[in-house]
Amino acid sequence: MKAVKLFLIATAIAALFSACGGKAKNKITLEEAKAGRDRELFLEAIKEIDKGNFDTGRILINTMINTYPDSPLARAAKLANADSFYLQGGSKNLAQAEVEYRDWVEFFPDDALADDIYIKMAEIHLRQVLAHNRDISHARFAEQRLKEMMRRYPNSDRKEEVEQLMVKVQEILAMHELEVARFNYVLRRAAQGAQIRTEEILNKYPNFSRLDEALWIHARSMIDQEDTETASRDLTRLVANYPHSEFRQKAEALLKEWGKPVPEPDPAKVAEGPPQGKGLMSRTFGFFFGPKIDTSPKGVIIDRDLKPEEIAAHAQELVGLPTPAGLTTPSAGTTTNTDSRPRRAAGATQDVEVKPADKESSSKEKPASKDNKKDDKKDKDKKKPDNSSKVLRNP
Question: What is the mean pLDDT of the chain?
Answer without folding.
Answer: 79
